[in-house]
Amino acid sequence: MAVQPMLPESTTQLWGQVLSAMQGKLETQQSFDTWLKPIVPLTLSPQLVELEVPNPFFIDWIHQYHLRALRQSLHEVFGAEPEIRFSAREPVAVPPDTTPPVLESPAPLRTDRTWFESRLNPRLTFSSFVVGSSNAFAHAGCRAVAARPGDAYNPLFIFAGSGLGKTHLLHAIGHAVRQERPAAKVTYVPAERFTNEMIYAIQHAQTLAFRNKYRNVDVLLIDDVQFLAGKESTQEEFFYTFNALRDAHKQVVVTADKAPKDIPMLEERLTSRFNQGLVSDIKQPDLETRMAILRNRLEQDGDGVKLPDDVLLLLADRVRTNIRDLEGCLVRVLALGSLLHQEITLTLAEEVLQHYVHAEPDQMTPERILTTVSDRFGIKVEVLCGPRRTQSVALPRQVAMYLMRQLTGLSLVEVGRTFGGRDHTTVIHACEKIAALMREDSTMADKVNGLISTLALG
Fold first, then answer.
1. What is the pLDDT of residue 75?
2. Contact (Cβ atoms closer than 8 angstroms) between residue 221 and residue 189
3. In this predicted structure, what is the pLDDT of residue 112?
4. Which of 259, 281, 303 is the last residue of a domain?
5. Which of 208, 240, 278, 316 would bridge 153 by S-S if both were Cys, CB 3.0 to 4.6 A apart?
6. Do residues 402 and 347 both lie within one domain?
7. How many domains, in total, are found in the chain?
8. What letter does residue 33 receive in the DSSP assignment?
């Protein structure tokens, strides 16, 4: 185990304030314990923050999922936006095909990993993306765009809930284009960063440089475009950037958490432009896909560790709606086994799941699902759970059964018991029927996904 350096008391106190500010910004205490507690602050000042983490994987994860919260917390403590630099205690291997660094922002995040400056994460490629029924169409569209940028589908718009792989596909397109066309100018940018850079350019009279940066690329990959909603000036700038690229036959790929028409306060002209191309969604992965994701991640980061199939099945069955959480759960299981020098068994995995997945067990209950489905379909809860078998009742009942299996840890028997003691085979039939309807009927898919979103928001 690496020995942590002795830190000045002032540094320790300041970092404690930063951690306190971060505490309420992460979804779970487990995320805080896993990703923030191991950080060692080397330098803390309003101008520069240098942080040491155990390995390069921490840099990947924090940059992708917790960087915004970290910046906000540093601003709260220092009243400024210091430059952030990460370093890893383990040696870093940079992929041989990584593009040399190009410093682009007024306050760049610098590390000893050049891919941060190129904006493309070398881990997120097509070869590391697991394809299943939930994402096959979106994956095929991305492959087509990468093969013929500016020609196949322009723009390509991918929407999905958090943690389902849309950012992975954006990076994969960028890597594939660069591999085939090394001289191509590929720019990946989250919509929030696009906005911040535009504001900085206006404040410092650099609007021409800002426009040249984004209007002279071959492929523009913009993530989480819903962040532009309600920001009139930024939407206008993006609209003209979009048009300039389209007119020059350059490729634009956009992701969001909703379909274009469902993003509130997004200008109609942008919605119209997005709908001119290919719009594709990514649904929640099925059990087989989740198992494949775990095996793929184990091959990449498991250091040769083999997990029993029953452990993988347990993880895949419990964590159903978010790939990010699924992979995070696997990382935690591997870390616990390694730190405790224990064999990873079902018992150990159950211990992790008890804290990681069900941190707020009272939020997703059968009663909540029944009430939400009842309100959506206009049917009383007692009717949903009663003996009536008419189509107007049977379909909402099947939707409720499907949601209980997807969103809770209830067994088939327990779900059946909720609906007046129905047999587990009835629950299986209901789940298979709704899953099939969602694949075949986009209206049904939107309805069920809308219910899931409503339940997730609490």
1. 86
2. yes
3. 37
4. 281
5. 278
6. no
7. 4
8. H
- Alpha-carbon distance 193 to 199, whole Å? 10
Q: What is the pLDDT of residue 2?
A: 43
Q: Where in the sequence is the domain holding 341, given as residue range(s)?
A: 287-356
Given a cut of 50, the residues of the chain with pLDDT beneath it are 1-7, 91-118, 358-362
State the virtual CA torsion across 122, 124, 127, 132 in degrees, nearest 10: 180
Output the pLDDT for position 109: 37
Question: Given 338, 356, 374, which residue is the final one in a domain?
Answer: 356
Cα distance between residue 281 and residue 453, in whole Å: 14
> Hey, which residues does 52 pair with through a beta bridge?
40, 87
Question: What local confidence, expressed as pLDDT, does residue 100 receive?
Answer: 35
In a domain, 182, yes or no: yes
The residue type of 204 is H
What backbone phi and psi angles, to 5 degrees, belong to 111? Answer: -140, 180
With beta carbons less than 8 A apart as the criterion, state whether 252 and 222 touch.
yes
Say yes or no: 144 and 277 in one domain: yes
CB 12 within 8 A of CB 67: no
Provide the pLDDT for residue 63: 76
Token readout for 182 is 């090394």
Quick one: 265 and 293 in the same domain? no
Sequential DSSP letters for 64-81: IIIHHHHHHHHHHHHSS-
Nearest-CA neighbor of 453 among 224, 223, 160, 168? 160
In a shared domain, residues 378 and 338:
no
In CATH, what number is assigned to the domain containing residue 224? 3.40.50.300
Q: Do the Cβ atoms of 181 and 284 come closer than 8 Å? A: no
pLDDT at 57: 66
Q: What is 129-180 written as a DSSP string?
A: PPP-TTTHHHHHHHHHHHHSTTTSSSSEEEE--TTSSHHHHHHHHHHHHHHH
Q: How far apart are CA 318 and CA 408, in angstroms?
A: 8
Specify if 108 maps to a domain.
no
Write down the residue that tokens 């917790």 correspond to: 66
Same domain, yes or no, for 268 and 299? no
Residue 243 shares a structural domain with residue 318:
no
Residue 116: the pLDDT is: 37
Q: Which residue has the tokens 């720019």?
A: 187
- For the chain, the distance separating the N- and C-terminal CA atoms, rounded to the nearest angstrom, is 41
**Which H helix or E strand runs over 196?**
helix 191-203
- Verify that 224 and 94 share a domain, yes or no: no
